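Summary for the lay section of the report: proteins are chains of building blocks that fold into shapes. Here we show the chain for Dephospho-CoA kinase and then a coded description of the shape we predicted for it.
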Amino acid sequence: MFIFGNEFFDEETGELNREKLSAVVFEDSKKRAQLNSITHPAVGKAMFKKVVSHLFKGEKFVVLDIPLLFESGANRFVQKTIVIHCNEEKQLERLMKRDTVDEKVAKSRIAAQMPLKEKMERATYLVDNNHGKEEAEKQLTEIADELENSWLPFIIRSVFGVTVGFLILSIFKIIF
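The coded shape description reads as follows.
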């Protein structure tokens, strides 16, 4: 059974028509939930693989850009969260410009998400994006510096390494 049929794909290229799909899922919460149930598991697996890859490469921390972090429950798998916020007028204006949509469509997309105020209450760090890109970058640099000086990644990596080591030894004992 197809939830989203061929009408959402370009006949010639086979590419997804994001605008058409967006128009449906942002107006129908049930369709949006169905789409999320299809996409989130695959996206989650891909992100997990990337994070583990970066851990093995010795990266101190990994930044994930997850628009529905709290809504999807993915916040359970991260240590720190950053919410970049601006006032409602700027949010609406920027969304309309970015997605080239009218005010009604932009408002429906914003309404389909958790209120920004609630995300801000749940965040570890807040970045005020009302005063331009340079100011936001300055705030992000301060956060990155704080994270860079933290011992938490070392502790997590140590626990991860010991756990992987025990798993490998257990498998090795079973095989031999």
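Put simply, here is one thing we learned. The first strand starts at residue 82 and ends at 85.
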